[in-house]
Specification:
The protein has 138 residues and is an alpha+beta fold. The chain has one domain: Alpha-D-Glucose-1,6-Bisphosphate, Chain A, domain 4, CATH 3.30.530. It is built from three helices and seven strands; from the N terminus they run E-H-H-E-E-E-E-E-E-H. The chain has helices spanning 14-21, 27-30, 114-136, and strands at residues 2-10, 34-43, 46-53, 59-67, 71-78, 81-92, 95-106. Helix 1 (14-21) crosses helix 3. The longest helix is centred in the last third of the chain and has 23 residues, at 114-136. The protein starts with a strand and ends with a helix.
Length: 138
Amino acid sequence: MVKIQASVEIDAPIDKVWSIVSDLDSEPKFWKGTKEVRNISKDGNTITREVTIAFKDSKCMQTVTLYPKEKIQIQFTKGVIEGTKTLTLAQDGNKVRLDALWDMKLTGMMGMFTGMIKKHIQSGSEQALESIKQEAQR
């Protein structure tokens, strides 16, 4: 498993940051590696969905759990990626710290590309957090 971490400090209220990151349908707007999202079912704060990722237009199944104004836990349940992506929000005075932590690997024969893909996910995460920051600070 590969761990990837990115953080950003956002000068905006936690409610505004949460409204952006918890709008799961707009994920492709910020996360360039996510091409398309299709929600399949919702049970309380848990959503089952299919996402198409930029890596060879692969489809992955995910279970997303929302912990309001605290974190979003995304579990990859089927597809080329195995593991989790967690977004965590922490209030720090007038600012919000937003962290993205991946604990993942590519499955099957694709496993040999995990190291190469790690760089893409790292830079994609940094770009996504910066885009979320820009949107929140408007």
